[in-house]
Write a structure and sequence with these properties.
Layout lengths: L3 E11 L9 E7 L19 E4 H11 L3 E5 L9 H8 L4 E6 L13 E6 L14 H4 L5 E6 L2 H13 L2 H4 L2 E6 L6 H11 L4 E2 L3 H5 L8
Parallel strand pairs: 2-4, 4-5, 5-6, 6-7, 7-8, 8-9
Antiparallel strand pairs: 1-2, 1-3
Helix pairs in contact: 1-2
């Protein structure tokens, strides 16, 4: 029987986050999430979705002619078919998976790049983090902190240092929560502390309206 996943939507857009920001990308947004972050901007992906086979999604990616695909959510790793999807997508290009850090990332295929969002206290979900994932990170993976204020920044800085994240993965990124923290303020903290992180603005929200879906 063909392996299926529940899909919220697929679309072509500019990758808005991570070190791949600015690149044309095919997005596969899977449905369902095990967390309820207070600032979630994809609440519509919390449930529902339509079934699609892995082969159907791989063919969709192939037909785009693009070389980059991001599997996102929701939380992709709560679906049993996600690993098979990641494995098969690799035949057509570079594969990213965006995950919230609450699920074991060790099953992600070695060549797939994990962009792991470690939830800060203001998200309301920081206690859901699987801290063993810090040791499971691979050299090409990336870690992201979405920062809502000074408390989050100090907490994220401490986590980064405690787990030596700049040596464990490709990049550590910090993003300000929209409407809660000005990018300039976060940038000032990073510069003052000489923190070896990348300021990560949500590029898609700058190009289009923050409420625009499917871009």
């Amino acid at each position: 029987m063909a392996i299926q996943v529940q899909v919220c939507e697929t679309f072509i857009s500019i990758q808005g986050e991570s070190t791949w920001a600015g690149m044309p990308c095919f997005f596969i947004r899977l449905a369902g999430c095990n967390l309820h972050c207070v600032y979630c901007d994809t609440g519509y992906a919390q449930s529902g979705g339509e079934p699609a086979t892995v082969s159907e999604l791989v063919e969709k990616f192939r037909k785009t002619g693009l070389g980059l695909v991001a599997v996102t959510g929701g939380e992709p790793l709560i679906q049993p078919g996600t690993t098979a999807l990641l494995q098969e997508l690799q035949s057509c290009g570079t594969v990213l998976i965006e995950t919230n850090g609450s699920r074991d990332i060790s099953g992600i295929p070695p060549a797939v790049i994990a962009v792991m969002d470690i939830k800060c206290p203001s998200s309301g979900e920081s206690e859901a983090t699987d801290w063993k994932n810090m040791q499971r990170l691979r050299p090409r993976d990336e870690v992201k902190f979405v920062v809502g204020g000074r408390e989050d920044y100090l907490w994220a800085s401490g986590v980064m240092r405690e787990h030596d994240l700049t040596k464990r993965c490709q990049a550590v990124l910090m993003s300000p929560v929209s409407d809660l923290l000005a990018p300039a303020e976060l940038a000032a903290w990073i510069l003052r502390d000489r923190l070896p992180v990348r300021l990560n603005l949500q590029l898609h929200k700058i190009i289009w309206s923050p409420t625009t879906r499917g871009v």
